[in-house]
Design brief:
Strand content: 15-25%
Distance between the termini: 10 Å
Largest sheet: 8 strands, antiparallel
Helix content: 25-40%
Number of strands: 25
Number of helices: 16
């Protein structure tokens, strides 16, 4: 979940390069940050220089850092130890000549710390600091890279460790579980936790596999098996993302920008449908198909099960990835497990698909980051095509996944053109919804409900996962308690919470669920609720109405985008940052 960025090369402003690098990774979520450099000129203490701060980077500067061509930085999301300067990375050894940054959790750190405390002075409460002192102990008898490698192999858990040393012109990076990617430049090399962080510098990258070690020097990157120390031959990947995708490009927030980018993303998807046939064939041939994901990706899985049921008349299971272990007894060599993820690195999902693969199941995926762990594990893969998504709250990647799933369902019955027609209508509707007057209407509704303590979103069929997703967006960035639920479940508890003025968003698309959803709206209004209707037609039960025209199964896409716009408007009116909501991270790489 933490962000990592490292640089070694020909430029002497390494500290600033790294500082800008970790700023591009802010969406991963963090509560403190730090930069460490090896100065070009010998400093009085002859040590690595570090700059650490608590909180967000904001308008901070690192003008106090010396000239350097070797540096790394870290944004910390606290796990072991509170949010303090001492617990912020980088961590130094006792000599100040070795520094480490770390993602993940060293599960057996206490065993090493209890021994090291006899001869080393610990300055933090973190599990991470043990790595610096263990490398320090190993250095007298071995090379720096070997000291880092042997230290890392002693750790249990999912981890990524980056290490630098005052006397060595190299960066050592090792991963097992926690993602790392290296970038190849012209007489300069980079390492980061996310490929998006490398876009301003290079598109030539390599995603480290588990138990791989990278040694970065000015002129090259070498990859080794971290368990054996043997060098490996690798083939770098070329990123297809455009560097402008990771900049605001005229918008005030990334979330607003990414909401608008859904139109070109979906338009491009219409022209790149070659992957759908392969996955649809695998689904029709499988004896048991499972869609698994976390957060918004799981809601896409739930919608996918509706798509396959209503369009292809085929049963497809859906499951939250963290709960998938309780269904794994059914997995065999005829099973198909399809993982959905933006980052391709979500730990609960990666663990689930790895276990499914061990049971000889076929692995499919719809994933945004080509080259990520999920991408490499998968036998059948579809790139979501969303491009870098910098805001924590998922927008364009989610709607891309929904479009892919719908088109795969249509491909399963050889009616892809019908799916294209529905998606084309949805794109047209997005264009209308994103016109200034319609956005202004959403803002006016946001003004009415921004002070609500509770909010409910209800729908049936495909509108049920849409309700869950809209509620997720509202609560995760505006901090209003929002709950999405199936309309038929209102009478089984939730309706007891309805009071006069309680905002309730009712999804009532023009399909077989319309009458039942309107009936739910009537029940809510009878108990004093303020009804915000999202539908293709106005109804007297609605206090406020947002039109979403009928796009058949693809109606779920513009309906969700209305929720995105509403959540964004509420959040901005309340003065919160929609891109970096509190306590949340874009990529959840720890359990």
């Amino acid at each position: 979940m933490c962000g990592i960025f490292g640089y070694i090369g020909k430029r002497t402003n390494a500290a600033q390069i790294v500082f800008e690098g970790i700023k591009t990774l802010e969406y991963r979520g963090y509560d403190s940050w730090g930069v460490g450099v090896v100065p070009i000129h010998t400093n009085a203490a002859n040590k690595i220089i570090v700059h650490k701060e608590i909180g967000k980077i904001g308008n901070a500067t690192i003008d106090d850092m010396p000239l350097s061509s070797l540096a790394f930085g870290h944004t910390r999301w606290a796990t072991h130890g509170g949010v303090t300067i001492e617990n912020t990375h980088p961590h130094l050894d006792c000599t100040g000549e070795t520094a480490i940054i770390h993602n993940g959790i060293i599960e057996n750190y206490d065993i090493f710390k209890n021994k090291l405390k006899k001869t080393h002075a610990f300055k933090s409460e973190t599990d991470s600091e043990v790595a610096a002192h263990m490398i320090e102990d190993a250095l007298p008898t071995m090379s720096f890279d070997e000291a880092v490698r042997t230290t890392f192999t002693k750790f249990n858990g999912s981890n990524a460790i980056i290490a630098i040393n005052k006397k060595e012109r190299q960066i050592i990076a090792i991963r097992n579980g926690s993602p790392l990617v290296v970038g190849f430049g012209d007489k300069e090399q980079f390492v980061a936790s996310d490929a998006a962080g490398l876009l301003p510098h290079t598109k030539k990258v390599y995603f480290l596999e588990d138990n791989e070690m990278a040694i970065l020097t000015d002129t090259e990157i070498k990859i080794f098996n971290a368990l054996t120390g043997k060098e490996k031959t690798i083939t770098p990947t070329t990123l297809t993302w455009n560097v402008t995708a990771s900049t605001l490009n005229g918008f005030t927030t990334f979330m607003e920008k990414e909401i608008h980018e859904q139109i070109p993303v979906l338009q491009d998807l219409l022209t790149q449908m070659q992957h759908h046939q392969q996955l649809s064939i695998a689904i029709t041939q499988a004896r048991g198909t499972y869609l698994i994901g976390c957060g918004s990706a799981y809601y896409a899985c739930l919608a996918g099960s509706f798509f396959f049921s209503s369009i292809a008349k085929r049963h497809v299971n859906n499951c939250v990835a963290s709960e998938f272990s309780y269904q794994e007894d059914f997995i065999n060599n005829k099973s198909l497990v399809i993982g959905l993820s933006q980052s391709g690195e979500t730990m609960d999902l990666i663990d689930a698909v790895k276990r499914a693969k061990q049971k000889k199941g076929t692995i499919g995926s719809i994933v945004n980051v080509e080259g990520s762990t999920l991408w490499r594990i998968s036998d059948i893969k579809i790139p979501s095509g969303a491009g870098p998504e910098m805001a924590v709250a998922s927008t364009k990647d989610l709607t891309a996944k929904l479009a892919h799933l719908m088109l795969v369902a249509y491909a399963a019955i050889d009616k892809t053109n019908q799916g294209r027609e529905s998606l084309t209508k949805a794109i047209s509707e997005l264009k209308r919804l994103l016109e200034p007057e319609n956005i202004s209407h959403t803002h006016s509704i946001a003004t009415m409900i921004k002070h609500a303590g509770h909010l409910f979103v209800v729908g049936r069929g495909l509108s049920y996962p849409a309700a869950l997703e809209i509620a997720m967006k509202i609560k995760e960035i505006s901090y209003i308690h929002a709950e999405g639920l199936a309309a038929g479940e209102l009478k089984h508890g939730t309706i007891a919470l309805i009071e006069k003025g309680t905002p309730c968003i009712v999804l009532a698309p023009d399909d077989e669920t319309y009458g039942a959803n309107i009936a739910a709206a009537m029940e809510l209004k009878a108990r004093g609720a303020m009804i915000i209707g999202i539908s293709s037609k106005q109804h007297e039960v609605f206090n406020e109405y947002i039109e979403v025209k009928n796009c058949k199964e693809a109606t779920i896409i513009p309906a969700i985008v209305v929720g995105q716009l509403l959540a964004l408007a509420i959040t901005k009116q309340k003065g919160f940052d929609p891109d970096k909501p509190r306590n949340l991270a874009k990529s959840v790489t720890v359990k």
